[in-house]
Amino acid sequence: MAPRTARALLCVAAAAALVAKRAPLPRSITRARSTIVMKDFPQPNVFDTDPYREGSRLSDRFKTDLQAGDKKKKVAIIGGGLSGLSCAKYLSDAGHEPTVYEARDVLGGKVSAWQDADGDWIETGLHIFFGAYPNMMRLFKELDIEDRLQWKVHKMVFAMQELPGEFTTFDFIPGIPAPFNFGLAILLNQKMLTLGEKLQTAPPLLPMLVEGQEFIDAQDELSVLDFMRKYGMPERINEEVFISMAKALDFIDPDKLSMTVVLTAMNRFLNEDNGLQMAFLDGNQPDRLCAPMVESIERNGGKVFCEKPMERIELNEDGSIKKVVLRGGEEVVADEYVSALPVDVLKRVVPEKWSTMPYFKQLDELEGIPVINLHMWFDKKLTTIDHLCFSRSPLLSVYADMSTTCKEYADDDKSMLELVFAPCSPIAGGDTNWIAKSDEDIIQATMGELARLFPTEIASDPRYEGTMKPRTFEGGALPELPDGAKLRKSAVVRVPRSVYAAIPGRNKYRPSQKSPIDNFSLCGCFTSQKFLGSMEGAILAGKLAAEVVAARAVGADAPGDKVIQQHVIDEAATASPKKPVGCKGRTAVAFGGGYTFDQAIKRELEGQDAVQLTPLN
Ligand SMILES: Cc1cc2nc3c(=O)[nH]c(=O)nc-3n(C[C@H](O)[C@H](O)[C@H](O)COP(=O)(O)OP(=O)(O)OC[C@H]3O[C@@H](n4cnc5c(N)ncnc54)[C@H](O)[C@@H]3O)c2cc1C
């Protein structure tokens, strides 16, 4: 046995003995809240892993055997989210001439951000980077912007449901290798699960580490709850861990989420010593991440345009693309075309002739999940936790005080919470369609939850009913708190179609980057790659699509087609061709993004995706 592993096993055994004896826990563990260190941490070693080496090999291919030489291609990439930009970056590295056509006036898609009238940044989503994001880490290195990641201490912070105002943590002890560091972190935490529950949880998850992807893929037909019941996991694991995990991973409840998603995340994160270590970008994504990608693309001969929405795809007789037509009539002719559109938009522009091809028909099985991202500015500083917090509350998923975690939004005196509100509709497991509710309703509900999360800090404020309820703290009732922190401003960003809904059975329908059309490839985080619908997934998918295009240009090998389900092939054989409904509208929501709602956006959503506005509750 390797000495590192032996040492780790000894530590785990010692910890187990400690837990079994119910020895009093060190103060640092019982009072996790007071031990969170308010500083950024050095970049962990995320480079000495197989996934990172694999990602690096692919990056290197673009500069070696995939170099275009005299086979340079003009490539039109539709969509300037992370995936489209990644595709363009790697194609330009290979010496091709990519041009990105982005519909909106800002790049980034689901990571886009903009400033409001006061100059405050509004983000489409609260975004966290993980050590186990190998292609993203490699990209930061290639762009020489690694110093823009603000690494946080290696732990996970959970709000305590039964003890409002209290937090508990999974602490990853430096020097203990994965997956033992995670096992130890769970063993040492005595607030969330009993030892018996912990021991019952481990065996069903072991095949994930031993058998790997095959076992993981085989669980896709099961929801997280189905899996738990099948393998006799205690129900409390769901309440204590899986609800917050599912909501953080896909904005969805565990009875709706495919177990493959949880296992995939665990497998990626738990196989690397620093896989679960988290980082915040030091500012808004368009400036701090998209802009350096654009610089790299342009330096190598590519171009990036905003406010160029694609209207339709026109085909040659043989079904290949003749040109794409932008809104306003501009025609784009290229050697190769790549869609970096979100799946919901892509489905609207698939040409009639392609609509009965199994490859495109399988897209019917995928759709984006709604989510809401909130910004709440307070007039005082709340308890500063310099980390992502899992709220474990019914309406909220994760949140962070961006005035503490992120340099660009830093404020010593006032907090700005960014919170992910989920599940926010029935498809995600909720019983209320919050997308259809007013901003006021959403903020009212959130203030009630915050009063519970911060019982000694959020002011009792007659504007928000939930803050006026009696609160409990450490078992006692709290008096009203008129001098607490008051909400001074908020922004509600609705993303009616965000990442693809990873409900059971979807993984098999995620299309390969290579399409059956000779001059057309696909990317976007929903396409087939091993990193779920995430920023890492978007970057990897863009890189894989670039590989398909670059390899075709020089006659080299690239990943091939993915098997399409027989029932899709059968249905496609008898399906009637469908005319594309087209990508209409001018707002972020029309392009698969998110925005603060006004009447114009609401009207567009009504026209395109009316189901999103059906009130349920
Ligand atoms: C609230 C929220 C929180 C999230 N948190 C995390 C997180 O913590 N960690 C993580 O890894 N991931 C997170 N994600 C997921 C992550 O943001 C996405 O997986 C990723 O950004 C998707 O990138 P993409 O390029 O595949 O798609 P998109 O970002 O959707 O890009 C598609 C682009 O195509 C453009 N487009 C659409 N129609 C047209 C058209 N007709 N013509 C031209 N262009 C068009 C769009 O404007 C957009 O720019 C979060 C997402 C949300 C919504």
Automatic annotation (TrEMBL):
<keyword id="KW-0125">Carotenoid biosynthesis</keyword>
<feature type="signal peptide">
    <location>
        <begin position="1"/>
        <end position="21"/>
    </location>
</feature>
<keyword id="KW-0285">Flavoprotein</keyword>
<dbReference type="InterPro" id="IPR050464">
    <property type="entry name" value="Zeta_carotene_desat/Oxidored"/>
</dbReference>
<feature type="binding site">
    <location>
        <position position="83"/>
    </location>
    <ligand>
        <name>FAD</name>
    </ligand>
</feature>
<feature type="binding site">
    <location>
        <position position="421"/>
    </location>
    <ligand>
        <name>substrate</name>
    </ligand>
</feature>
<keyword id="KW-0934">Plastid</keyword>
<comment type="similarity">
    <text>Belongs to the carotenoid/retinoid oxidoreductase family.</text>
</comment>
<feature type="binding site">
    <location>
        <begin position="102"/>
        <end position="103"/>
    </location>
    <ligand>
        <name>FAD</name>
    </ligand>
</feature>
<comment type="pathway">
    <text>Carotenoid biosynthesis; lycopene biosynthesis.</text>
</comment>
<comment type="similarity">
    <text>Belongs to the flavin monoamine oxidase family.</text>
</comment>
<dbReference type="InterPro" id="IPR002937">
    <property type="entry name" value="Amino_oxidase"/>
</dbReference>
<keyword id="KW-0957">Chromoplast</keyword>
<dbReference type="GO" id="GO:0016166">
    <property type="term" value="F:phytoene dehydrogenase activity"/>
</dbReference>
<keyword id="KW-0732">Signal</keyword>
<keyword id="KW-0274">FAD</keyword>
<dbReference type="InterPro" id="IPR001613">
    <property type="entry name" value="Flavin_amine_oxidase"/>
</dbReference>
<dbReference type="Pfam" id="PF01593">
    <property type="entry name" value="Amino_oxidase"/>
</dbReference>
<keyword id="KW-0472">Membrane</keyword>
<feature type="domain" description="Amine oxidase">
    <location>
        <begin position="82"/>
        <end position="549"/>
    </location>
</feature>
<protein>
    <recommendedName>
        <fullName>Amine oxidase</fullName>
        <ecNumber>1.4.3.-</ecNumber>
    </recommendedName>
</protein>
<dbReference type="GO" id="GO:0016117">
    <property type="term" value="P:carotenoid biosynthetic process"/>
</dbReference>
<dbReference type="InterPro" id="IPR036188">
    <property type="entry name" value="FAD/NAD-bd_sf"/>
</dbReference>
<dbReference type="GO" id="GO:0016020">
    <property type="term" value="C:membrane"/>
</dbReference>
<dbReference type="InterPro" id="IPR014102">
    <property type="entry name" value="Phytoene_desaturase"/>
</dbReference>
<keyword id="KW-0560">Oxidoreductase</keyword>
